[in-house]
Write a structure and sequence with these properties.
- With about 325 residues, the protein is α/β, with parallel strands linked by helices.
- The chain has two domains: about 1-115 and about 310-325, NAD(P)-binding Rossmann-like Domain (Rossmann fold, 3-Layer(aba) Sandwich); about 120-305, Rossmann fold.
- The protein is built from ten helices and twelve strands.
- The strands form two sheets. The protein has a seven-stranded parallel beta sheet with strand order 8-7-6-9-10-11-12. It has a five-stranded parallel beta sheet with strand order 2-1-3-4-5.
- It starts with a helix and ends in a 5-residue tail after the last helix.
C-alpha cells in the first residue's frame, strides 16, 4: 500500500530535465549541507556536470534514475535496487551498516568519508574519561542548583587517568585513534576485537571468548564496535556484572550495542562508576528516559564524530574521489 502511494506521489512531482550533454550529479541536502555551501565548492565544475540539489525525499527518489553520481546520507526503502545500476554513490556518513539490508547491484560503486572523524572521536573519549574520572559531572549539576559542594567529588582518593587501563572494544580506524591518544598519555591500553590488529599501541589483546578478562582488567571501557547481529545488546546486565565496580563506560559506536534497560539496572546497583553516551537507541533520547536522572551519566547529542563538523572535508572528498575519480 505504501509503495503504491509513493508511486502515485512520484507521478505528480515535476522536475526539470537533466542536461543531456553533461554528467548528472544528484545531491541530497540537509540543514548543514546546503545548496549555497555546495555552490561554493563546485563553481568551477559547471561546464562538465549538471547538478541537481534536493531536500525533498520524493524528488530525490524520482531523480535518482537519471543521475550518474549521487551524494546522500542514506537510501530510502522505496528506492528499487535496479535503479542504482552503474551509479557512483557517496554516502556522507561514517557508518554504512544500513547497506547490509540493501542489495545493491554489483555495478554500483559506493564511497564514504572513511577515517574523517577519528581524531574528533578520540579527543571526545579522552575528554569524557578525564571528566568522569574527576567526577566533574557533580560540579556541573551543582552549578545548576547554585550549590558549592565538594563532598561527592572528593569522597575517594584521586587516581590519574594516566594510571588507568583503557579498554577499547573494536579496534578499527576509530579504535586505533582512541588507543593512540591514550597511549601517548602513558596509559596501558587493552584491545578487544575478533580480528587481531598488529599494532604497537595495543598492550594486551582480548578476543570475544575472553570478554570477562578484558572487563576485569579495564578501568575505562570505550565502545567503538560496529553494529551487527553479534554486537546488538552485547553490553547487557551480564556484561555490567563483569565490569570493575569503579570503572567507566563510554559509547561512541551505536546505541543498539547497549541494552539501555540493563544499563539502568546496572547504574542503580552501582555495577560501574559512570557513563558517557554519545549514541543511543532512540535519538533524541526521549524526555521520559530514566537515563536523564542519573548524575553520573553524561548524555551528548551524537556529536563525537558528527559528519556535520567535517562538511568541507566531506564535500572536497566527494568532488575528488567521485567526480574527479582520484581515489586515494
Amino acid at each position: 500500500m505504501k509503495k503504491k502511494l509513493v508511486k502515485l506521489i512520484l507521478k505528480y512531482i515535476k522536475v526539470r530535465d537533466w542536461e543531456k550533454s553533461k554528467k548528472r550529479v544528484l545531491i541530497s541536502l540537509n540543514s548543514y549541507f546546503t545548496e549555497n555551501e555546495w555552490l561554493e565548492k563546485i563553481s568551477n565544475l559547471d561546464d562538465e556536470f549538471d547538478f541537481y540539489f534536493v531536500k525533498n525525499k520524493f524528488r530525490f527518489i524520482k531523480l535518482i534514475t537519471g543521475a550518474d553520481y549521487i551524494f546522500c546520507f542514506g537510501l530510502s526503502s522505496f528506492i528499487e535496487a535496479r535503479l542504482l545500476t552503474k551509479k557512483k554513490i557517496y554516502f556522507g556518513v561514517v557508518g554504512l551498516e544500513f547497506l547490509k539490508k540493501v542489495k545493491l547491484p554489483s555495478s554500483c560503486e559506493v564511497f564514504s568519508p572513511k577515517g574523517i572523524s577519528t581524531m574528533s572521536i578520540a579527543e571526545y573519549c579522552l575528554a569524557m574519561s578525564i571528566n568522569l574520572n574527576l567526577k566533574l559531572y557533580y560540579a556541573f549539576n551543582n552549578k545548576l542548583k547554585k550549590m558549592w559542594d565538594q563532598s561527592k567529588i572528593l569522597n575517594k582518593p584521586f587516581i590519574s587517568i594516566k594510571k588507568k587501563t583503557i579498554g577499547i572494544m573494536g579496534v578499527g580506524n576509530n579504535g586505533k585513534a582512541i588507543a593512540e591518544i591514550f597511549k601517548n598519555l602513558g596509559c596501558h591500553v587493552n584491545g578487544y576485537d575478533k580480528i587481531h590488529s598488529k599494532s604497537l599501541i595495543i598492550d594486551d589483546w582480548f578476543y570475544p571468548d575472553r570478554l570477562d578478562l578484558f572487563l576485569s582488567n579495564s578501568d575505562v571501557v570505550i565502545v567503538a564496535l560496529s553494529e551487527n547481529p553479534e554486537t546488538k545488546h552485547l553490553i547487557n546486565l551480564e556484561f555490567f556484572k563483569m565490569m570493575k565496580k569503579d570503572s567507566i563506560l563510554i559509547n561512541i559506536a551505536r546505541g543498539n550495542i547497549i541494552n539501555e534497560d540493563d544499563l539502568i539496572i546496572a547504574l542503580k546497583n552501582k555495577y560501574l562508576s559512570a557513563v558517557a553516551l554519545d549514541t543511543l537507541i532512540t535519538e533524541p533520547l526521549p524526555r521520559q528516559s530514566k537515563l536523564w536522572k542519573f548524575e553520573n551519566v553524561i548524555v551528548t547529542p551524537h556529536i563525537a564524530g558528527n559528519i556535520n563538523l567535517f562538511r568541507d572535508q566531506i564535500q572536497k572528498d566527494f568532488i575528488k574521489t567521485v567526480l574527479k575519480g582520484k581515489v586515494n
